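Box 3.1 — From sequence to structure: Diaminopimelate decarboxylase
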Amino acid sequence: MKDNVLHIQGVSVEQLATACQTPLYIYDENKITEKLSRFHELFQSDTFKTEVLYASKAFSCKAMVELVAQYGLSLDVVSGGELYTAKQAGFPMERVYFHGNNKSYDEIMMALDYGVGTIIVDNAMECDMLVKAVKRSGRSIKTMLRVNPGVEAHTHKYIVTAHLDSKFGISITKKKEIAAMIHTLTSVAEITFLGYHSHIGSQIFDKQAYVAEIEKLMQFTKEMQTEYDIHISALNLGGGFAALYTNADHPIPLQDVCHTILDTCKKENAKQQLNIEKIMIEPGRSIVAEAGSTLYRVGYQKQTEHKKYIFVDGGMSDNIRPALYQAEYACDIANRMQEDKTETVTIAGKCCESGDILIENAKLPKVSQNDLLIIYTTGAYGYSMASNYNKLGRPAVVFVKDGHARVVIKKESYENMLDLECNEVINV
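Predicted structure (token representation):
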């Protein structure tokens, strides 16, 4: 902070607002690289090979993917677009894992043509499609199968992913169907089956959720080995590591969660007399969320019967999470950081939806028009879930580091939004 103005990595947010306009996503690059480095250092074992995959759905662009490659992590992608971004960023394709519950044939062929290392198979129909694609392409591929252990982390219902009726994966209770899928995969010489993948939710604050996941998966692995002679070499335990959004959040210290996962894997691997060689995790949010903030300019204010509204020049078009998940955030007036917070206000966006509320009951100093309001911990699922609702252009993304700033994604102009509009006659 300098002269009552927030600085990020030595760069004034006032200067960033002038140079790049608002709304603006600002990432502290050093915070990103620190998290990448910490995961790489802490997720190490004397018992297993280990691999950390960055879940790029949290925030994907070429600059981010380049950092992931630089710090030695692998990459989790869930669409052709994320895969294309990785390719254009020069990411090593053998370190890419392709997820998703409804991969198209074209996406599967794209992954094979690019030389993707591993495809995570979600369901029986995809299994059959992958076999056809591999036979057609002649390419080799490693595979894992996504399974649901029935462990439900205590998060919002939209981000719980491993319950028995989840849209993702197949329940571990369906052992016969799972065995049939694995047989289908291993019947093709070019396909190598590594093991199982699971993901139990997001914003997990209790490390016992991971313990329960591992215990269930290891027991299931033993049953599949005993009943169907299916042996595996790897387990991917997904992500879900929490980020700090407000003072009410208490994320598990990274060292603790890594130790808990690896220690439990070692214990259960021995208990079930398995020979698992490799353990993987997939952090996304926990790497980028706290590194990112969104800067807005304050517009009008309005007093209703029970609320004082502060309107900003963005909203659900650049941060859908409050409307979608009732996600909570913290904020400040970035150009008056040291003033006493004397008012309780509601921060609302400019989109034409009553649900376009970014923060309820925010404590702030008396707010004036043209003040800069910053909302913290928007680095995950802010830009990646942004839309053009109301024909609002997506904001620019800036990385700041050691007193310098660089634009890594340009602000979307009105012209950009119309680039794909046309009047082409098609022959049908």
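Summary of the box: The chain has two domains: 7-26+291-418, 43-288.
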